[in-house]
């Protein structure tokens, strides 16, 4: 009996000693609520970071929600419904112009070009931008970055979008592709994968890239309130490091491998189509190669907004961009 008691005490003592040691060795996982403006293959590195466990390696659990539209995404961030927002950098400028005691700061860039393509109804063998003159062009919603980048490119190529062609901008984003498929417009500005689907189905032909033409801009970035970045700088650094790992992974692996990695985020999209889109964005370097949003990109963004008459006021790079976190991550 005494021998049995001794064994029981020994087992209990071992458990008492082991459990605290195990608890000490386990790092607490922190949940980060991310609101993305839309679900898009354009954001492939974000999904790679989740799927390949790069966030998990940093002790982070990502609660990803799609909040359609820049206004809804920013509302989620400002109302504390999200910790981090993935949205166009222009939204941080709009919020700042309205006045905020806790400004929204861009801290990690995900995409660095516009993501739309010029699609023609008829096949064009030798395309030149002046062919759009006199045509009907189905553009994006007024005030949005796709529309501003689109008009910037047209002007860059000597076309006045409001006089040299018939510009249609009163169709909701979700219905633009349907309107073109139904016969509206000679040309349309479309995101992927719709542009590639139209080409595959013979409904249109991709003839130019607005992303290539408009140059590098902070098209989509991760942003958070200034207070979050100050109070949880270590968390922001871990988050950015995971993003950077994914950015490198995408450029170090084939479009096919990336497509397979992110397929679960697009269950209704054919794997071959995902690969086509990833390859197209990768070749024109739409995916940022690192999370640093530099001054040149920031100024290019504001130039495009100003040219479109949508810039409330010019705001310095230092005011709404934090590059310290990204620079620290990339140096390591």
TrEMBL record:
Transmembrane segments: none annotated. Signal peptide: none annotated. Pfam families: NMT1_2 (PF13379). Keywords: Signal. It is found in: Periplasm. Belongs to the bacterial solute-binding protein SsuA/TauA family. This is NitT/TauT family transport system substrate-binding protein. It comes from Peribacillus deserti.
């Amino acid at each position: 009996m005494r021998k049995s008691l001794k064994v029981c005490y020994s087992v209990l003592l071992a458990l008492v000693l082991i459990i605290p040691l195990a608890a000490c060795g386990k790092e607490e996982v922190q949940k980060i609520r991310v609101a993305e403006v839309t679900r898009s293959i354009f954001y492939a590195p974000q999904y790679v970071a989740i799927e390949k466990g790069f966030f998990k390696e940093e002790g982070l659990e990502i609660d990803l929600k799609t909040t359609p539209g820049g206004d809804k995404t920013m509302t989620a961030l400002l109302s504390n419904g999200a910790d981090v927002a993935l949205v166009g950098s222009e939204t941080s400028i709009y919020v700042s112009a309205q006045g905020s005691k806790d400004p929204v700061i861009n801290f990690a860039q995900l995409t660095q070009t516009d993501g739309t393509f010029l699609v023609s109804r008829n096949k064009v063998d030798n395309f030149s931008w002046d062919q759009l003159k006199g045509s009907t062009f189905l553009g994006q919603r007024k005030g949005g970055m796709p529309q501003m980048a689109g008009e910037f490119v047209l002007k860059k190529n000597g076309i006045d979008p409001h006089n040299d062609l018939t510009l249609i901008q009163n169709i909701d984003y979700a219905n633009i592709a349907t309107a073109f498929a139904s016969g509206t417009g000679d040309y349309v500005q479309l995101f992927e994968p719709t542009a590639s689907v139209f080409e595959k189905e013979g409904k249109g032909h991709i003839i130019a890239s607005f992303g290539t033409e408009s140059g590098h801009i902070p098209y989509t970035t991760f942003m958070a309130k200034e207070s979050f970045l100050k109070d949880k700088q270590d968390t922001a650094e871990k988050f950015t490091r995971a993003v950077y790992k994914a950015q490198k992974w995408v450029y170090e692996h084939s479009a096919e491998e990336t497509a397979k990695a992110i397929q679960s985020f697009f269950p209704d999209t054919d794997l071959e189509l995902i690969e086509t889109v990833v390859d197209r964005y990768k070749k024109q370097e739409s995916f940022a190669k690192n999370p640093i949003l530099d001054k040149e990109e920031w100024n290019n963004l504001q130039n495009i907004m100003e040219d479109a008459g949508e810039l409330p006021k010019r705001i310095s790079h230092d005011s709404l961009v934090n590059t310290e976190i990204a620079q620290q991550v990339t140096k390591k």
